Predict the 3D structure of the following.
Amino acid sequence: MKRKIYIENMPLEKATALFEQRLEEADCYHIKAEEITVSNSLGRITASPVYARRSSPHYISSAMDGIAVKASSTAGATEVNPVTLKADDFFEVDTGDYIPAQFDAVIMIEEVNFINETAQIIKAAVPWQHIRSVGEDIVTYDMLIPSFTRIGPYEVASLITAGVNTLNAIKKPIVGIIPTGTELVDRGSEEMAPGLIVESNSHMLKALCEEWGAVALRHEIVIDDREQIRRAIEEMTPQADIIIVCSGSSAGREDYTASLLEEMGELIVHGLAVRPGKPAILGLIEQKPFIGVPGYPVSADLIFGLFAKPLIYKMQGLLPPPMPELECNAARKMPSPMGVDDFINVSIVKIAERYHCFPLVKGAGITTSLVKSDGVLCIKRGMEGLQAGDNCIVTLRQPLNVIDESIITIGSHDLSIDILADILQKRYGLRLISINAGSMGGIFSLRRKETHFAGLHLLDYETGGYNVSYVQKYLSGDNWLLINLVKRDQGLIIQKNNPLNISSLKDLKNPQIRYINRQNGSGTRILLDYLLEKEDIRPQEINGYNREEYTHLAVAASIKNGASDTGLGIYSSARALNLDFIPITREQYDLCILPQLFSTVNLERLYTAILSDEFKDRIMAIGGYNLDSTGQIITSNNI
Amino acid sequence: MKRKIYIENMPLEKATALFEQRLEEADCYHIKAEEITVSNSLGRITASPVYARRSSPHYISSAMDGIAVKASSTAGATEVNPVTLKADDFFEVDTGDYIPAQFDAVIMIEEVNFINETAQIIKAAVPWQHIRSVGEDIVTYDMLIPSFTRIGPYEVASLITAGVNTLNAIKKPIVGIIPTGTELVDRGSEEMAPGLIVESNSHMLKALCEEWGAVALRHEIVIDDREQIRRAIEEMTPQADIIIVCSGSSAGREDYTASLLEEMGELIVHGLAVRPGKPAILGLIEQKPFIGVPGYPVSADLIFGLFAKPLIYKMQGLLPPPMPELECNAARKMPSPMGVDDFINVSIVKIAERYHCFPLVKGAGITTSLVKSDGVLCIKRGMEGLQAGDNCIVTLRQPLNVIDESIITIGSHDLSIDILADILQKRYGLRLISINAGSMGGIFSLRRKETHFAGLHLLDYETGGYNVSYVQKYLSGDNWLLINLVKRDQGLIIQKNNPLNISSLKDLKNPQIRYINRQNGSGTRILLDYLLEKEDIRPQEINGYNREEYTHLAVAASIKNGASDTGLGIYSSARALNLDFIPITREQYDLCILPQLFSTVNLERLYTAILSDEFKDRIMAIGGYNLDSTGQIITSNNI
């Protein structure tokens, strides 16, 4: 059984320096140029300076509305002794009009008396008065645009005006991307077989290339076969300026790439002390940069950003645009191994004039952590990680104005929260960041004042009511407001047509029935435990009591995909995935809001969204909801 | 003679509010959507929320390299009493591999003893240990992306992973652009007739549309004929979401547009209290926004940016990205009429930790002022303008890092300055802003410490030497360094083959010979005055002594285009425009540098560029230069 070959753990700075040095030595940063037409030049970078080929204006012209005259013909004119010019001796001009060669001055229209066909002048003109120069805007041979400069809309206009038809532009670097992996397919179906993965990394890298000014050539997927990978590299190398091999997402697959590179070119680095992205490969082939990108999307993005991005910019004569940084408060503990540069994608929200960053779900396979990322935090090698409350510097991926126009909800999840988020984004450009932490997670986040509001559905075993006793207990010292968002049906989500004949909670005692549970502290878990106690079922009697998911939809998806048979959850999740549902209870899902953390305008936007017909219509279309008391204040605390 | 119809002078805020209100009432902001494929979605905006169609992973998988087992089959295993699993009872898995339905736990590879075909287990597995959930990344029906959100590279990857093939995107607004003007041509030649202008505004606006996410349809050029303009508007209106009519650059042409709009639709505003851009037209036609854009490029850009930009973004469900602002010191007096919002394009440079802004050459026809613009300063209606030294707020058009990586030279111009600029940009990404103010202008800018260095060629009438006595006199209290850049030939630039038989300065007394002079304070003007005195020629004897240009190239261009017959200038300008040249003297062109205003690294870059072979080779290729003492320190002042 062939296992991993030796992988180093090279510090990032050392690997970067080594790679850059070898690329420099191999003349990889050499700029390639091509002649392009001005009509195709928008967004391109000049390879050499562009000189004007024509002056603008290319003729002398009038700076006024008036008449063009020969100054000498007006000599001596005064109010008392006006000079009268015959029709041939003047020429009416608008501002910008050409001044024919026989004239050398312009008299303003206001200072001319037109009498029949003649013009009466009461003041002598000084030669060249009110006449605009040739080349007032552009002079032939002016350097219009220096080398290594982006052609924007104004440059396009200026080039056209200056008579430039073609220019020497930097050729866009061509990035050859080879996706490898036997488990990969190009296009999945909703019923694709387990174990298959739809190849997405190459498309992500291709899109990044486009954003950075390069062109990507994607090779078709290559299975994990050394010879086939070799042939793909041989085929791609002559066509591209940078060669990228994407590993499959399973471990150990990059071994072929590294050993092939050793054979075919030069392996410079294999293995970095970074997380994620350790198995990265850096090298040279046919004097071209070669990067082996790990298979997990988050690793692929990190390695591509660290090594391909500066390279793509440099090959265009540019530096990557600076990434703004922001000082944040770490809202969560972020432990980190000492030996690596640890890159963590975070969400950022501004609460009470401070920016709080929340680490996104970890795992190099989580593409949604890239989608949701507002920035990246790097815990440097030799550092132990962050404690909650620590200051840290985040490199932003979102513009600061998007972050500033965001609110956050941490707590229990419901599909209505997504709909609220959509309405707020659509109507106000206000982003709602939503973190699923269960109802108790929401309570604690409210207590720490790190969330604007929280969705809660906490059953009070004693009163049978929801939420009120919890917020009164845990948030007694704070201002808060509890309003109802929805009432919703909870029950057992089951396979379509109920093949296992589940009829009630009692059936969970059957060890053949694989249950999927919600995490501790979630309202649904609290509800389950209450129901189990009432029915006298012990947790250890249930197969899967310890298997935890973090959302209703995740529970439904597990059942949908046959990974489990049933779980307690809301009707809307069953409905969304076309599963069956055994209703058990109707519960209250409220929002606990901390109004003092909101701006007046955003609080009003939230209320307006909740009370909108659009919100109600969209919720009712899902089913399993009751909106009788939506938006009603249940109770509040006003300190 | 038909002159202007009545144009208002409506304050900008009032016009904006009125236009927006009418657009709102006419439902112009209505969002249009279309179905697009994910492969064409990069950069597009979602019109409705996108939900996942497949979970990812869509199967339970291993979180470890190890073996998949049925947990119950490992019950009771200890180091003392290991359990041995037969080949059928376990399944080797890598991280991420599918776990077949008969198994429900994974044991790490390190904890397994492989003996022949069997696996020895020394610790019982807990059900579901080391098994990854279905949907760890994405769960079917998760809201992946809300409405009105841009699809970037990560969204593309996430959509592919979530089994989404098509999505509902906002249709790019279509902007119909109609260029009008009898003087306009589509493509000029180097010998085009005087009075013709190459149409460039529509191309600039088209490029701006692309940058803002819209698609532009350009109509062919329409001459100034009311019926033809009417037909063009009729043709464009059904095809476009926004209709733009660009006036020709001469005054009064927008009258047709306004009166046609009154007839065909609704004229909302005609005439704004802004500079430039007063004749702008705002209206509605067939319930679509209509903007009449003035003909001068700087006016066109301003009006398009003020009215079309927010509209284009709003039609995509977006707000225009915020434009950063910067507090600057007005380096020059900027007078402004009280009655208008006065928009001034400026260059910005950072000197000694302060940003200084310099107004670019005014005139709404100057496209280069758009190319060179680092930002726009607005002197509000009711304000009188800025004094030199006043603080002001500039809305940036260039990223701050480009401004920060800039140095400036104010003084006499030489082609070698352009080449220096090109080398600095290419090698270091360092921008050299160059402002032509003549040698004495350079001296005064050095004195005010508003320039890093200045090009000087100031002849001392008494000593016959250059520059030294001037800098000693005017900069006695400062640290400075005078180094030679080039020596160059000055003489009379004349038409090719000298049709007027000019042979020396004496010929300038001939009134048939139209001279073109340089501005007061320029080294060449000082040289001319010195030479005239020596030759005993009085300025008033010269036809054109009062006609002034600001650069050598402008003088040459005036001669090239027949607007004048001769002027004093440098050989390289004559050569660049393929003119003849009568050499008169060789002069010294030095740089006076203020080292304390530079960062160490930038000063070194400047020296390195001056001393580079590339600089010398490029200068020598022009001709008329001597580089014997290039880079040599002539003298310095060290306080």
Q: What stands out?
A: Residues 341 and 380 of chain A are 4 Å apart (CA to CA).
